[in-house]
Amino acid sequence: MSFQRGGRRRSFQRRPRVCQFCVDNIDTLDYKNVEVLARQTGPDGKINPRRRTGTCARHQRMLARAIKRARHMALLGFDRGTWL
């Protein structure tokens, strides 16, 4: 038995996340759909990473582009979530 520094590493089974946009067959993300975009940002206004949301790479790129466009059009805030 080999021990790592700091103790033994524990592994656990994590449920594989699926892209919600792929499941819903969404081809394009629009910057005007503020409710969907606001759910993908944190309380500080940052875009949540793929490892947290389970979004695939293709939809994550589309999501980031739509969020940035919505911020520029003042539909989303640059900080503190939405402006609704």
DSSP summary: helix tally:
4
SSE class: mainly alpha
**Helical residue percent band:** 25-40%
Termini gap: 57 Å
Q: What's the number of extended β-strand segments? A: 0
Order of helices and strands: HHHH
Instruction: Based on the coordinates given, report the CATH architecture of one domain.
Output: Irregular
CATH topology of one domain, what is it called?
Answer: 30s Ribosomal Protein S18
What percent of residues are in strands? under 5%
Main sheet properties: none
Q: Roughly what is the average pLDDT, rounded to an integer?
A: 85
Broad CATH class of one domain: Few Secondary Structures
Radius of gyration: 17 Å
Plain-language structure description:
It is a single chain. By secondary structure, the chain is an all-alpha fold. The protein has a domain at 20-72: 30s Ribosomal Protein S18 (Irregular), CATH 4.10.640. 36% of the residues lie in helices and 0% in strands.
Summarize the structure.
This protein has 84 residues and is an all-alpha fold.
Output the keywords.
30s Ribosomal Protein S18; flat; mainly alpha; 84 residues
SSE topology sketch:
Layout: H1 20-23, H2 34-39, H3 50-53, H4 57-72
